[in-house]
Amino acid sequence: MAPVSASRVCSRNASASVKSVAAPRQLGVSGKASASASASASRVCVSHARAHPRCEVGVGKATGDVQRRGESQRCYVAKPNGSAVVMVAAGVPPAKAKKPRLPALDALRFFLIAYIATGHFVAFATPDKFLLAFFSQINVVVGAFFVISGYVAAYTSTELNAYEATMSRLEPALKWSVARVMGFYPLFLLIQVVFTPMFAFADMTYNGLKATLLHALMTFTLVQAWFPMKAELWNAPTWFLSALAFSMFVLPYALKPLAEMKKVGLKKAFLALTVISCIAKLAYTYDVPGALGLLEGMGKHPNLVFFNVMRFNPFYAVLEVLMGAVACRLVMTDNAPDRTMEQRKEDGAVGALTAPFTLAVAMVGLLAARAFAFVNGVTLPVNDMIVRGFVFIPLWCLFLMQVHRATVSSESNGGLTEILAKPFLVFLGGLSFPLYLLHGPLGQLFYKKVIAKQMFGATMASYFGYKFFPVYVGITVLCSYYLTKVMAFAPFQNACKALGESTYKLLSA
Prior knowledge:
Residues 103-483 form the Acyltransferase domain. By secondary structure, the chain is mainly α.
């Protein structure tokens, strides 16, 4: 066989060779074909190696020299694939690149929800001011969940090493959106129904029957995030699902044009999304007296309506979801056919200041620095929204990209990415969504006065102080584990499927 620099390979027996080469055959680094490929191809010859040393990668039409040998012949194009070469039959589309699993992303979800769940109830866990300030920055960190949602959606719905979307998944757009929402709504609905008596009791105690019925409608239909002062109704953390659901109905219309963008366009898109997000956060900071310097989780806010718009409104969630999608496409196109080897090497670099561990330290250090400053009475000229938009989300996007690259790189030497891919951490990642849904209701059960007094005579904090918090954590984790068993239960899965189909029929009617 000729060296890998040869550009076109042809066979005289088209009927035999198309069968043997239509499915891509890889040549080794030495350029030798496998024995099976050699045996199945009747006669293989190299042509135009000198005339076309830089022949474009792809399927091409046979040149004049080849055509003169007989119209029955077919032309093949040698396609670089890392250190190997792939032969593809003319007229036969190359096989889609297979996407490797990214187990580290599952583990990251667990760490995110562990931080946020702790932040929601940290006042019952410790009196330490530094820890209170550190874990109270949930409005900074929660944006990471939107980013990772967009990242995964882009990874599963666009093509690897190609500038195209997976249209078989994205069309029809409504069906794609409903499928994504049904990925979380059934379990949300189950938890909502189970805890409705508790939620409704507390709501009726403070707001009466009419308001309670209205609030039930808002939460069951996941529209509460649009109402700044009502976004945290009933199961407070589920405002996130309300904003995410809206984002999933926007995303299919954005994924196709994003998938068709090359590196330059994607970088411009990421910059534009970041600028729009940051302008809104600057407006909030400018218009609210005293907003600059606030550590929002550690005191009463001077303008809660404006602050709630910034942190709950689905429009801003869409921006961060799209940032995640763009970040994913920047990695998925690292080895696109038009990228040179030098560009591929530069794009895939994971070391030095952009190593996942370094970026993780930077993000945790950012939260710790703000907490340390607060405890020591130092007012930094930032707030949660400024830190989130200008620093944390860009760092998080880069972190996800580098974790992705380290996962798929053949030159990766382990490090943080390998640790995140450990089976136990991936298992914990599988608990993240049940943890997210359960930590709020269980926290209300144990710590909310109007409910805990009815159930236990007083809150667990009154009985046990800070000592009960580890028990609350253990109960939440255990219940989350059993909830994953419910998710795997065939009747539950069948009910989810039926709900999705009926919802799609209703919305598409």
